[in-house]
């Protein structure tokens, strides 16, 4: 059965871009006679707020979207992510990284490739790591791409793209995990699990077959597909869609204080108006 999801983070109010993505996934599920899930990705405890989560439910209901209950909230399933991290660590696929973001950027800038996205590190010598742990230094668990490549023994990986990547990528796409930032962070000592690990675990546990989301997350599919293989999880189909942009040509974003769905409602915009504006049929 076709199963897809919309998975917002409650770190601000939803805007047009969120509405477009949610409706794209919802209408795809309806067209396929499948299931539509809502997931609250609230692992960022420093920015997630209950009022934003409540607003997500209100906004989606206003759009006419229906979802299954109970809703999976990531903060209630941390043990699932820790188990996945433990499995990767047991297989020697992770390492503790004590470098700061600034140090990572400096190391990447000085590398021959010249791109920060390609950072690769390695475990510290045991005595130095023990000393830093004893001193209580903060660290992040990172996925070792070098170790992952060795574990795959040269086996090529692909994922199926039914939509389109930023450069028109479609069909069977060769996986290049370095596109997602090199040795990505899987968890932090102080914050906990990170996005890439949590999302692949959630999608597998929820039986998601189709991941429908914006092209801004296309590069994430590469490292997420790698994690799926390393954790022996099912391979979903990806369907990345275009990004909704404003009159200035920039995509709608929370950081740019894009007009929220709450604001639209307050000035009298109806769900039918918004659907029509975004290219959805008024009677859908």
Q: How are the SSEs ordered, and which strands pair?
A:
Elements (H helix, E strand, L loop, with lengths): L2 E4 L9 H17 L2 E6 L9 H13 L9 E2 L4 H13 L3 E4 L3 H9 L16 H9 L5 E4 L1 H8 L5 E4 L9 E4 L10 E4 L3 E2 L1 H11 L4 E5 L3 H13 L6 E5 L19 H6 L4 H8 L6
Helix pairs in contact: 7-8
Q: What do you see in this structure?
A:
The chain has 284 residues and is α/β, with parallel strands linked by helices. It has two domains: 1-76 and 245-284, HUPs (Rossmann fold, 3-Layer(aba) Sandwich); 77-200, Alpha-Beta Complex (Glutamyl-tRNA Synthetase, domain 3), CATH 3.90.800.10. The protein is 38% helix and 15% strand. The protein has helices spanning 16-32, 50-62, 78-90, 101-109, 126-134, 145-152, 195-205, 218-230, 261-266, 271-278, and strands at 3-6, 35-40, 72-73, 94-97, 140-143, 158-161, 171-174, 185-188, 192-193, 210-214, 237-241. The strands form four sheets. The chain has a four-stranded antiparallel beta sheet. Strands 1-2-3 form a three-stranded parallel beta sheet. α7 crosses α8 (218-230). The model has no long low-confidence stretch (mean pLDDT 91).
| Level-1 CATH class name of the largest domain | Alpha Beta
The strand count comes to 11
Q: Which structural class best describes the helix and strand composition?
A: alpha/beta
Order of helices and strands: EHEHEHEHHEHEEEEHEHEHH
- Report the CATH superfamily of the largest domain: Glutamyl-tRNA Synthetase, Domain 3
Which shape, going by the Cα principal axes? globular
| Largest beta sheet: strand ordering | 4-5-8-9
Residue ranges: pLDDT <50 for 5 or more in a row? none
Number of helices: 10
The CATH architecture of the largest domain is Alpha-Beta Complex
Distance between the termini: 22 Å
Indicate the mean pLDDT: 91
As a percent range, the share of helical residues equals 25-40%
Residue share in β-strands: 15-25%
Number of domains: 2
Query: Main β-sheet, in a few words?
Result: 4 strands, antiparallel
């Amino acid at each position: 059965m076709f199963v897809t999801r919309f998975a917002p983070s409650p770190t601000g109010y939803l805007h047009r871009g969120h509405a477009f993505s949610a409706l794209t996934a919802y209408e795809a599920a309806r067209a396929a006679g499948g299931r539509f899930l809502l997931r609250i990705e609230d692992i960022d405890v420093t920015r997630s707020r209950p009022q934003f989560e409540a607003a997500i439910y209100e906004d989606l209901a206003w759009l006419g979207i229906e979802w299954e209950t109970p809703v999976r909230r990531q903060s209630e399933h941390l043990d699932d992510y820790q188990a996945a991290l433990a499995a990767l660590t047991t297989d020697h696929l992770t390492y503790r990284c004590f470098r700061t973001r600034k140090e990572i950027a400096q190391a990447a800038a000085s590398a021959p490739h010249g791109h920060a996205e390609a950072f690769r590190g390695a475990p510290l010598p045991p005595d130095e790591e023990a000393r830093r742990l004893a001193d209580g230094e903060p660290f992040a668990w990172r996925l070792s791409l070098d170790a992952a490549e060795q574990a795959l023994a040269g086996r090529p990986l692909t994922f199926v793209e039914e939509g389109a990547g930023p450069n028109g990528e479609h069909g069977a796409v060769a996986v290049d995990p370095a596109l997602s930032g090199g040795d990505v962070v899987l968890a932090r000592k102080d914050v906990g699990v990170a996005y890439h690990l949590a999302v692949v675990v959630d999608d597998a546990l929820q039986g998601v077959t189709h991941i429908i989301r914006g092209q801004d997350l296309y590069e994430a599919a590469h490292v997420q597909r790698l994690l799926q293989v390393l954790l022996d999880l099912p391979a979903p189909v990806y369907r990345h869609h275009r990004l909704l942009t404003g009159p200035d040509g920039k995509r709608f974003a929370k950081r740019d204080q894009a007009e929220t769905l709450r604001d639209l409602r307050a000035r009298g915009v109806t769900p039918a108006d918004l659907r029509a504006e975004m290219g959805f049929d008024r009677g859908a």
